[in-house]
Amino acid sequence: PSTCQYKENVDRFLPIIDRLGHAYSLAECQRQCDLERQFNCRAVNFETVHRDCALSSEDTQITPLGTAAMIYRRYSVYSEKGTCEQVSVQCNQQDMLLAMNFDTPFHGRVYAKGNPAQCFVVGNGQNTLQFAVSLGTRCGTLQEGDGRYANEVVVQQHPIIMTDTDRNIRVVCSFEAGDRTVTLASTTRHQPTITSVVTNTAPPPNVVMRILDPSGRDAGVVGLGDELTLKIEIQEPGSAFAIFARNLYARSSNGESLFLIDSNGCPVDSSIFPPLRPDYRNPGALVANFKAFRFPSSGMVNFEVQIRFCQDRCDPVRRALSSST
Length: 325
Prior knowledge:
By secondary structure, this protein is mainly beta. The chain folds into three domains: 5-82, Hepatocyte Growth Factor, CATH 3.50.4.10; 86-174, Immunoglobulin-like (Sandwich); 207-311, Sandwich (Immunoglobulin-like), CATH 2.60.40.4100. Helix content is 3%, strand content 50%. It is built from one helix and 21 strands. The protein has one helix spanning 26-35, and strands spanning 2-13, 19-22, 43-47, 52-56, 71-91, 95-106, 109-112, 120-122, 126-134, 142-143, 148-156, 167-174, 180-187, 197-200, 207-212, 227-234, 241-252, 257-261, 277-279, 282-291, 300-311. Strand 7 (109-112) and strand 8 (120-122) form a beta hairpin. It starts with a strand and ends in a 14-residue tail after the last strand. Pfam families: CUT_N, PAN_1.
């Protein structure tokens, strides 16, 4: 969308009107001007009592009388466009990518308000500019609920100092990143065999669950009691997301089930399956070492887990304290 900086003159009115309507606020009236397509809207008159919104194709820059064309009118605000920019945002697993098109060559500075010293880009007279704002905490991006990330970007017209023509733009990226279920199916025959086939039901991000042997390869033929590692990881390298796992079940093809990790992320029976812990070599992964097991009635074992996504890293597992009377 187009975003424009407006210069306001209180108790002033420009008697040149192309369209008259209503608006709840001056900002809404300015927004109507931004969205006008029938003519090139350059300015607005907003009457604060009756909330009249008058759009004009002229301003004090192009009318022959200049600022002398304005007249005094109580409760009226005359507001004309200054610098405008077209702003769009694309989201990936690492950044919010802003693309800005300016109507005049841009020599200013664009920065993330959460960390202006490290997250910025300076214009060199071009009309287009791209700016990557980290989804992590480096640029001060905030997580506003599951899968929703926001930051405030300042478009500073001068490369060094702030002026009243600077503009703040709120940037939001939303991902469908609430609790998701990841399933891994394992087949065991006479000699218990675990062959992993992973289905990720919840992009983005893409998450896989694997069973590894002691060498770190996908497990092939194993026996009961063999040392194995269950690994859950985000596939995209450098992702700003971390993961928290809970409600891990092992299920047989005949409907039997074994609760391994509870809703708090704690092991139900650590002698069967220990806590999932962050992989020190990969911050977007969780691992747990366990010994191979199977159900007596079936050679098929399904692992199913719920995943919650966090910004940068998740809070550590905290066991719920039970009260006694």
